[in-house]
Design a protein that fits this description.
Elements lengths: L3 H12 L6 H14 L40 H15 L3 H14 L4 H10 L11 H17 L5 H14 L3 H18 L4 H14 L13 H16 L4 H12 L8 H10 L4 H5 L1 H8 L2 H22 L11 H15 L2 H14 L8 H17 L2 H6 L8 H17 L3 H17 L7 H22 L3 H15 L15 H11 L3 H11 L7 H13 L3 H11 L14
Length: 567
């Protein structure tokens, strides 16, 4: 069963990476985290996009793909902006997509499908946005406008418009399924149209409350149908970015996430300017244990956000990009697992600079920042760690993470007393800080994990592995057992790895081996865990197995020497 911290991460993923207004962000954060869902659908709530900026000065940045869907316009510019709107929508650039469709509609007010596109772009999406009443009303208005103006529309286009009206009309409880069914009928008759099939699969994914059980089996027939649609479409159009994007999301927590690997490996080449699509393969890479690739996908995605800002100057700049922090967070997670100190520090500096003043109410953004502090603690110089400013009193999570960074750095320096001092400071934060009552227990557990990790680090430095077993055991107990990895996790590494290292140092090589073999099902190919496994096999006299594990440990590791005390 997935740990509650994976579930916590999934819920928070839906709430937090969006760089929207602080008050809106905090509210979305609190609401989503309470759900503790287990099937991550997207990467950050964007909320309503009705306030998308005027498109008059919008720039069409190339590199978002080449897919085209002919609509009812004789104006080539309107057609181009419609296509760009579709590409932006599949790149989860929701506000920019709305702007593109509005520009297409301004160029040809009689283009019914241009109004359809705007209605689609501002409506429900896998990032949890577009479901508010105002967006629904505007979606209905636009869909009805599409019907009135679509004089030159083809029968298929008219069917798509009628389906969009279903999305926004009638009882709220049945809108999603009626839209999915209406699109499904169109898709069955037009299986060679990637836009139609992708919109249909997306509709079934949105309709389902839960996607997969703990064994990766579909919990909703709509998910089974979405998988059928996407796989059939990929056979006909294997290079469609929107279809690949949805397929990565749908397979990530299925029983076989590896199926998306060949598509993910080429997605960045198909849409080389779309930061979120360049990022997307990292969902698969992290899930299957390709941590270096997950890191580099996001290093590239972060750079593309900067490029898009320079070329298109979207309103709000980089801090206003809903998924920028998610890209950085995911990249930092990959860097921590792969030992990518240089890349990780680059991302950590960007995160703490871009989000220098995280609101006190935004717990998720503070939890994302933990990876930045962890990177400084694991890879930063003593001078860099010492220079990190102490967060204010009303940011308890940031303060705990700041203490954790200092503790990890002290452990690397072999200063057990300093490590224990930081662990005690984290304990004090747990005892005195006020947390959001709706999820205070989860946050206090999160903080305690890193207190116990530092206690374990100090005990290992002191040469007391028995005490480390107790400390790491408590951390692993909190983190939970089972599938903890992916998306990336809110706790950056499997604390069972540290527990196994302490068990080995305490003379229990067989127990350490069993613990590592257990966790590798949830954190496949974790290089540090494989190194601990190699040490355990060697202690058991299994030289051949030890060498095999050692070779495997070097596949994903780009860091320096490994030690049991830092595992």
């Amino acid at each position: 069963m997935r740990s509650r911290f994976l579930a916590f991460t999934a819920a928070l993923c839906l709430a937090a990476p969006a760089a929207v207004a602080d008050a809106t962000q905090a509210a979305a954060d609190a609401a989503a985290s309470a759900g503790l869902i287990q099937n991550p659908r997207g990467c950050g709530t964007v909320g309503s996009v009705l306030d998308a900026a005027d498109p008059v000065n919008m720039v069409m940045v190339d590199g978002f793909g080449v897919a085209s869907f002919a609509v009812d316009t004789a104006n080539p510019e309107a057609q181009a902006w419609f296509d760009h709107g579709v590409r932006l929508r599949w790149a989860f650039e929701h506000k920019e997509s709305v702007r593109a469709f509005r520009k297409a509609r301004a160029l040809d007010p009689e283009c019914g499908m241009c109004a359809w596109g705007e209605a689609w772009a501002l409506g429900p999406n896998l990032n949890g946005g577009g479901t508010d009443d105002e967006s629904m009303r505007e979606g209905r208005r636009l869909a009805q406008m599409a019907r009135r103006t679509a004089r030159d529309a083809t029968p298929v286009q008219r069917q798509m418009i009628d389906a969009m009206i279903q999305r926004y009309s009638g009882f709220k409880s049945s809108r999603a399924v009626r839209f999915a069914r209406a699109m499904d009928r169109i898709a069955r008759a037009n299986p060679d149209k990637p836009l139609i099939t992708a919109v249909t699969a997306d509709a079934w994914m949105l309709k389902a409350e839960d996607w997969w059980d703990d064994e990766g089996r579909a919990l909703d027939p709509g998910i089974t149908r979405a998988m059928e649609i996407l796989e059939a479409s990929l056979e006909k159009a294997p290079n469609d970015p929107g279809t690949i994007h949805l397929y990565i999301h749908l397979t990530e927590w299925s029983d076989d996430p590896h199926k998306a690997i060949p598509y993910g490996e080429r997605l960045a080449m198909l849409a080389p300017s779309a930061s979120h699509l360049v990022h997307m393969p990292s969902h698969t890479f992290f899930r299957v244990g390709r941590y270096r690739d997950a890191m580099m996908s996001n290093v590239n995605a972060v750079a593309l956000d900067q490029r898009y800002n320079e070329l298109a100057a979207p309103p709000g700049g980089i801090p206003g990009m809903p998924l920028h922090s998610h890209n950085i967070h995911f990249g930092m997670g990959g860097a921590l697992m792969a030992g990518g100190g240089d890349e990780g520090l680059l991302l950590a500096r960007r995160f703490l600079t871009t989000y220098a003043d995280i609101p006190a109410a935004n717990a998720w953004r503070q939890m994302q920042a933990h990876n930045a502090y962890a990177i400084f603690g694991r890879f930063g110089s003593a001078e860099e760690v010492a220079a990190l400013p102490e967060p204010p009193e009303d940011r308890p999570l940031l303060r705990a993470s700041w203490r954790y960074a200092r503790g990890e750095a002290a452990a690397r320096a072999g200063d057990a007393r300093a490590v224990r001092a930081e662990a005690e400071a984290i304990r004090a934060i747990r005892d005195t800080a006020t947390f959001d009552a709706a999820r205070g227990r989860d946050i206090k557990d999160f903080v305690e994990v890193f207190q116990r990790v530092l206690e374990g680090r100090a005990a290992m430095v002191e040469g007391n592995p028995a005490a480390a077993v107790v400390a790491y055991g408590r951390a692993a107990e909190i983190q939970g057992s089972g599938e903890e990895g992916g998306d990336p996790p809110v706790i950056w590494y499997p604390t069972r790895r540290s527990l196994a290292a302490a068990m080995l140092a305490n003379g229990d090589a067989a127990g350490a081996k069993a613990k590592i073999e257990e966790l590798l099902t949830d954190w496949p190919s974790d290089p540090y865990s494989l190194w601990v496994l190699a040490e355990a096999e060697a202690a058991l006299g299994n030289a051949e197995a030890a060498e095999a594990a050692r070779v495997r440990s070097r596949v994903e590791w780009v860091g320096g020497a490994m030690t049991l005390s830092a595992a």
